């Protein structure tokens, strides 16, 4: 893949699967979107809503003889704006239908009732975690991110675990939650290729972002537990090549999964050492775990901390105490 002033040149990564490297304004860097030839010409993810991303998409498609107007359907691996932001622009240009997991819909549609619930959920979560009042502005920053790098769109068809992707008869859906509740991957058995989105990435471990529960009366999902379980599910699959949402392809997915799982336990050990001298809130632990990063990337770092606290809690390796609406953890 090459990117420069001339834009993106699409690269064939597997039979009838072409990668387009799309620039993003985010720390994660470029996002990989994939053009898949099947009964319908399908784009897997689209990139963020920026002029540079649109130019890279159009140039990349042109490099293999296609236009945006030729896209017949879009499959979203998940709802994060670096993967879905251009969706409405692609739909308007092409008339393509959109397929995604049901839990992507309220984010993609920017459903106002859901967004209000989302805000309430995070306000309560952050207060329990001990986040100072003045830092709760990060909830509004999430809205700004969505409004800047995506626009309201819609999902036409819903995808479930192990179903065949409509109009891509060789591809099967694998529901792989953890990084997001809406995350899915696509698997082609004949050559053991997986389009893995942000589930399995070679150079970085995916953050298991805390998200609201699907049932508004229920407890929040244990996203790191989900992520680890979905990783183990993939480790049991016969996969020769993972084409990821960021970075290079993965050819040793089992070794990579094992390494990721091991790193989780190393982090839980670190947390237990931090609690050896007394109880602490999740926010205090986050500041200790990520001293140079936590203020700039609080949703990411707090998700990491809470995820590892969840692991320790379900194994009864830490205890929790509530006082004045805040949770404190101790050995």
From TrEMBL:
The keyword Nucleus is annotated on this UniProt entry: no
Gene3D superfamilies: Ribonuclease Z/Hydroxyacylglutathione hydrolase-like
Location of the Metallo-beta-lactamase domain: 30-246
Keyword terms of this UniProt record: Hydrolase
SUPFAM superfamilies xrefs: Metallo-hydrolase/oxidoreductase
Annotated SMART domains: Lactamase_B
GO molecular function: hydrolase activity
Pfam families, alphabetized: Lactamase_B
Membrane is among the record's keywords: no
Reactions this protein catalyses: 3',5'-cyclic CMP + H2O = CMP + H(+); 3',5'-cyclic UMP + H2O = UMP + H(+)
Role according to the record: Counteracts the endogenous Pycsar antiviral defense system. Phosphodiesterase that enables metal-dependent hydrolysis of host cyclic nucleotide Pycsar defense signals such as cCMP and cUMP.
Record-given protein name: Hydrolase glyoxylase
């Amino acid at each position: 893949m090459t990117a420069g002033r001339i834009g993106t040149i699409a690269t064939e990564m597997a039979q009838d699967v072409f990668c387009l490297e799309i620039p993003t304004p985010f720390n994660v860097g470029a996002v990989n979107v994939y053009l898949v030839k099947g009964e319908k010409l399908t784009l897997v993810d689209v990139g963020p809503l920026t002029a540079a991303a649109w130019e890279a998409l159009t140039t990349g498609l042109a490099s293999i003889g296609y236009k945006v107007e030729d896209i017949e359907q879009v499959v979203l691996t998940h709802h994060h704006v670096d993967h879905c932001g251009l969706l409405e622009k692609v739909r308007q240009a092409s008339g393509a239908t959109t397929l995604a997991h049901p839990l992507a819909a309220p984010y993609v549609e920017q459903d106002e009732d859901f967004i209000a619930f989302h805000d309430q959920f995070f306000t309560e979560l952050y207060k329990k975690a001990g986040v100072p009042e003045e830092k709760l502005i990060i909830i509004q920053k999430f809205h700004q991110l969505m409004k800047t790098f995506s626009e309201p769109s819609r999902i036409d068809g819903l995808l479930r675990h192990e179903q065949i992707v409509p109009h891509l008869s060789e591809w099967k859906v694998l529901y792989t939650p953890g990084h997001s509740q809406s995350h899915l991957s696509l698997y082609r058995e004949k050559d053991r290729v997986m389009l893995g989105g942000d589930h399995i990435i070679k150079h970085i471990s995916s953050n298991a972002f805390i998200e609201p529960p699907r049932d508004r009366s229920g407890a929040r999902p244990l996203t790191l537990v989900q992520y680890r379980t979905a990783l183990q599910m993939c480790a049991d699959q016969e996969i020769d090549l993972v084409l990821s949402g960021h970075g290079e392809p993965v050819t040793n997915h089992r070794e990579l999964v094992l390494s990721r799982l091991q790193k989780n336990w190393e982090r839980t050990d670190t947390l237990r050492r931090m609690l050896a001298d007394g109880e602490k809130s999740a926010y205090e632990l986050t500041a200790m775990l990520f001293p140079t990063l936590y203020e700039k990337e609080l949703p990411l770092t707090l998700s990491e901390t809470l995820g590892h606290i969840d692991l320790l809690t379900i194994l009864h390796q830490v205890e929790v105490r509530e006082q004045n609406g805040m949770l404190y953890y101790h050995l």
